[in-house]
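Worked problem 6 (solution included).
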Amino acid sequence: MTEIFGIPLQAFLGQLLLGLVNGAFYALLSLGLAVIFGLLGIVNFAHGALYMLGAFAAWIMMDQFGINYWAALLLAPLSVGILGMLMERLFLKHLYKLDPLYGLLLTFGLALIFEGVFREMYGVSGQNYEVPELLSGATNLGFMVLPNYRAWVVLVSLVVCLGTWYLIERTRLGAYLRAGTENAALVQAFGINVPLMVMLTYGAGAALAALAGVLAAPIIQVNPLMGSNLIIVVFAVVVIGGMGSILGSVITGLALGLVEGLTRVFYPEASNIVVFVIMVIVLLVRPAGLFGKEA
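Solution. The predicted structure is:
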């Protein structure tokens, strides 16, 4: 049997795949954070809760209404995106001219409320969500067995991340978004409804978090703590990539997932802290992050 550094090839590649799947979730979640912070200046600590709400929305649709995975993949992000727009209109719009700390505290409070409500309703034991039949099973590649659903998660995450980057950085709509956050009065003078654009931007960021939750539902048990367990790592990913850098968040999320997977192979005890160690090193060398712009 082929070995790499004394480890069976199949086991080594399996850990790399697990790291890539985790990296796909990191990339998708950090993308939503980067969009909201980069365009609105809000440090959205409710992002983990929105991820959890996306997973629960998919599970409730299946359990209560018989809505399948493919429909939930569209409906759950849409419903959480609408909730995000309501949050922006009711609360966050009053904080744009204040210190970002106020936005962080408000979204942290909202996250605790969402988590508390769902803990009261469903407990913390977790709910099972079945892998859709079309994506069940695995494909034997010869050198390893690739679970079909995990391959699907990586593919969808890459497509969504690159599509979002292209939309914001390479299209006229993205130019309007960036201009609206820099000089709202000037953009409104051209007849563009900036408040509506800002509301839709926050809703889109919330929908990205919910999409990650739907993708995660068949892999991990759906529970109220799933967002809080992940959000700290995702914030570390965003800081390493550079706050507000969309491409930086995507690349860093995928890369750190792979680094985490490799760490599990060679030194499992460090796998839970390796991301934070890298964050400390990056901040010491480049405080703005790898892809961030220096002030």
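Discussion: The chain has two domains: 49-123+148-222, 227-295.
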